[in-house]
């Protein structure tokens, strides 16, 4: 049975439980997407593929990229620090409090 809810919302800043990865959620799959490009990244047999997976505008050190992360590996980021991804302005407006308001989807 596939869960039909997601813990994190579009525009929310999250952090990986283990790795030094932070990002802003810009899309959610309610269960694992069988897209070939993401298959190698998520082949860990311990991952429950029937959980939400999140697309993040992510940063790790000086690198920025799009990450596809299962919900079990994410926690809310309470640092208040902005995410420094070059595509933030394409998808989000950032208000004075640092909240990300989603404008629309540009990635396919």
From TrEMBL:
Q: Which Gene3D superfamilies match?
A: Hemimethylated DNA-binding domain
Question: Which keywords does UniProt give here?
Answer: Stress response
Q: What is this protein called?
A: Heat shock protein HspQ
Q: Which organism is it from?
A: Bradyrhizobium ontarionense
Gene name linked to the record: hspQ
Q: Which domain of life is it from?
A: Bacteria
Q: Where is the Hemimethylated DNA-binding domain?
A: 5-103
InterPro entries (alphabetical): Hemimethylated_DNA-bd_dom, Hemimethylated_DNA-bd_sf
SMART domains membership: YccV-like
């Amino acid at each position: 049975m596939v869960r039909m809810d997601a813990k994190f919302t579009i525009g929310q800043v999250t952090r990986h439980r283990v790795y030094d990865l932070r990002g802003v959620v810009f899309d959610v799959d309610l269960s694992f997407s069988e897209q070939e490009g993401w298959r190698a990244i998520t082949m860990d047999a311990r991952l429950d593929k029937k959980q939400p997976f999140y697309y993040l505008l992510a940063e790790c050190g000086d690198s920025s990229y799009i990450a596809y992360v299962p919900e079990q590996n994410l926690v809310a980021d309470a640092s208040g620090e902005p995410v420094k991804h070059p595509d933030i302005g394409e998808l989000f407006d950032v208000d004075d409090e640092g909240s990300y308001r989603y404008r629309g989807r540009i990635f396919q």
